[in-house]
Design goal:
heterodimer, A: about 280 residues, alpha+beta, 7-stranded mixed sheet, 9 helices, globular, B: about 140 residues, about 30% helix
Chain lengths: ~280, ~140
């Protein structure tokens, strides 16, 4: 009896360890494929119209509005990729494991997923900033800012883990600052430039649950007092966009959507782009 | 007593797993080029006849529906010319009974492909060359 119960317990805990992880292969509907490709083309055309060659693009892959967040993931859009086409350069987690890698993706791939909303915000940096980020990517230097040990909630001021938005942020820092050979120096520069991470509130139950059941979530890089307080500081897509717009006042933002726009999170929680110099464009089905 | 403890552990694990799911919804997972192409193929892919037939405003009649284990092939006959095209779609489209022989299919052409509509419902989206060009995935040259 005891052995049976133990076997059931182990089986269920094993199941729990895999539950809810990404990489479930959901079949996209024709409407979702249509929306993904339409938004991908809209982003490409908007970048061309802006005369950009480097930009930061945010997507709404998951519903994070209850945390006051609009976007869930950012990547570099790079026109001069060696393959000869606009390409997203991004860090991605390998199917819920504790590892990540850098990928070069077409704009279609960027949105061909189970999106929460087919909406993107593009931040087009000033020509100087674009040139510096483009030079770093052309030198294939993004890898030296990459940490393959992945945590969705990686602490912004530690180099133990890294999340996908953090790679974009730290690579941007390395491009803009002088003498930034690695992540520690990039974080020092970001701290000096007063980068402000988001703070999400995570209860002890939620934290324990994630630590037990998810290989891609770790809290041991966070300071103990913050952990106990349930205050988890993290680099979010929104915080990356807000930071780039603050340190590069000539950057512009464009928001594009296909289908019904997202409900806007509370203004107090979301550092929304002001769309300076551009009007947001909406597209309806 | 031990059994009760184990069951309590199991229940706790379930609660914790459930609690973590809502907070840590993730969006940074690698999707291969194959997965993206599979998504396109599942949405709609010409497997017979010419994609040129799927022009804006075209009207078709369903001439046949063949279901396989993982997909269905719909044979469309162009009302104007009588030419035929075969489109592979996800199996559930045919299984749901949403497409039957003799039904009218209309086409809405867009920049990245053509939507096929039956009774106002999109049953397939067939990417064109522009749409397919947007699909690419590889390990980064930055590594």
């Amino acid at each position: 009896m005891l052995r049976t119960a133990l076997a059931i317990a182990l089986a269920l805990v094993t199941f729990a360890a895999h539950a809810g992880q990404a990489c479930t292969e959901k079949q996209l509907s024709p409407d979702e494929v249509r929306a993904a490709l339409t938004l991908a083309l809209d982003v490409e055309q908007a970048l061309d119209r802006a005369g950009a060659h480097v930009a930061i693009v945010a997507r709404a892959g998951r519903d994070l509005t209850r945390y006051g967040l609009r976007y869930s993931h950012v990547a570099f859009a790079w026109r001069d990729h060696p393959r000869g086409a606009w390409t997203m350069v991004e860090e991605l987690n390998a199917c819920g494991t504790s590892e990540s890698a850098l990928f070069d993706d077409g704009f279609g791939d960027f949105f061909l997923d189970d999106m929460f909303a087919y909406e993107a915000t593009i931040v087009v940096p000033s020509p100087t900033v674009q040139r510096r980020i483009g030079a770093l990517l052309a030198a294939r230097a993004g890898g030296r800012l990459h940490e393959p040990r992945y945590s969705l909630v990686a602490y912004p001021w530690s180099t133990r883990y890294q999340n996908s938005n953090q790679w974009v942020l730290e690579t941007t820092a390395a491009a803009l600052a002088d003498d930034v050979p690695g992540r520690a120096e990039a974080q020092a520069w970001l701290r000096a430039e007063r980068f402000r991470p988001a703070t999400i509130h995570v209860s002890a139950v939620e934290r324990l649950g994630a630590e037990w059941t998810r290989a891609n979530v770790a809290f041991d890089d966070h300071p103990l007092d913050r952990r106990i307080a349930g205050a988890i500081d993290v680099v979010t897509a929104d915080s990356v966009l807000a930071f780039v717009r603050r340190i590069d006042p000539d950057a512009t933002a464009i928001t594009l959507s296909v289908g019904r726009p997202m409900a806007v999170p509370p203004a107090s929680a979301y550092d929304a782009p002001r769309f300076a110099g551009r009007q947001p464009k909406g597209r309806t089905q | 007593m031990n059994v009760k403890r184990i069951l309590a552990c199991v229940a706790t694990a379930g609660v914790l797993a459930s609690a973590s799911n809502s907070v840590f919804a993730q969006d940074s997972t690698a999707v291969s080029a194959e997965a993206s192409r599979a998504a396109l193929a599942g949405s709609g892919m010409i497997v017979g006849g010419s994609a040129e037939l799927l022009r804006a405003g075209a009207s078709f009649v369903v001439a046949g529906v063949t279901a396989t284990s993982d997909a269905s092939v719909i044979v469309l006959r162009d009302v104007a010319s009588g030419s035929q095209a075969s489109v592979r779609v996800a199996s559930d489209v045919a299984q749901a009974g949403s497409i039957a022989v003799g039904e009218t299919v209309s086409v809405v052409a867009e920049a990245t492909g053509a939507s096929l509509l039956v009774g106002g419902r999109v049953v397939a989206f067939v990417p064109n060359e522009v749409g397919r060009r947007l699909v690419y995935a590889a390990r980064s040259s930055q590594m």
